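Weekly sync, protein design subgroup
Attendees: M.S., D.O., the rotation student, P.L. (late)

Item 1: inverse folding check
M.S. brought a backbone from last month's batch and wanted to see whether the design step gives back something sensible before we order anything. D.O. pointed out we never logged the input encoding, so this time it goes straight into the notes. Structure tokens as presented (160 positions):
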């Protein structure tokens, strides 16, 4: 998770910027469900360990050093991280991700890999929180939550 996410995030952002794609998009895919039901999350020990390590990075100094965070997002994060990380929900993730993409689209980012590394703690926190939220839910519930998050991200960019 920690090795792959920054690579995927930087590649996605580079592609977006290279093709000068608009941050506005038409709709969120409403096709059939593509998540399979799994009753067991087999990586919970590893996820908990990674979560603890990434939470350790989320000091007020670290958060304040992130030039790409909107002031309102920063204040919200400082109120919950690292101690109340369970409150880091979909709306927080959408704001962090939206701030991150918006900043990159308006600024020249020289080292995309390092820039993507700054997003990693937030991805890990949200992913582990979501896994825990969804462990007793159906695949349909999970799919709906992901699509609602995508709609919220669309709304974020529509209002920027």
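Designed sequence read out in the meeting:
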């Amino acid at each position: 998770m920690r090795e792959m996410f920054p690579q995927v995030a930087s590649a996605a952002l580079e592609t977006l910027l290279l093709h000068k794609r608009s941050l506005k998009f038409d709709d969120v895919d409403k096709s059939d469900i593509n998540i399979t039901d799994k009753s067991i999350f087999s990586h919970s020990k590893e996820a908990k360990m990674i979560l603890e390590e990434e939470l350790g990075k989320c000091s007020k100094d670290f958060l304040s050093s992130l030039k790409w965070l909107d002031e309102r997002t920063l204040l919200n994060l400082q109120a919950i991280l690292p101690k109340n990380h369970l409150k880091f929900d979909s709306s927080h993730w959408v704001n962090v991700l939206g701030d991150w993409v918006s900043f990159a689209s308006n600024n020249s980012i020289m080292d995309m890999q390092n820039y993507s590394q700054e997003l990693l703690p937030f991805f890990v926190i949200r992913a582990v929180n979501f896994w825990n939220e969804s462990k007793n839910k159906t695949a349909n519930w999970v799919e709906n939550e992901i699509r609602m998050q995508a709609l919220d991200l669309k709304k974020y960019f529509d209002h920027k």
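Discussion: The mean pLDDT is 88. Residues 4-10+44-158 form one domain.
Action: P.L. to compare against the previous round before Friday.
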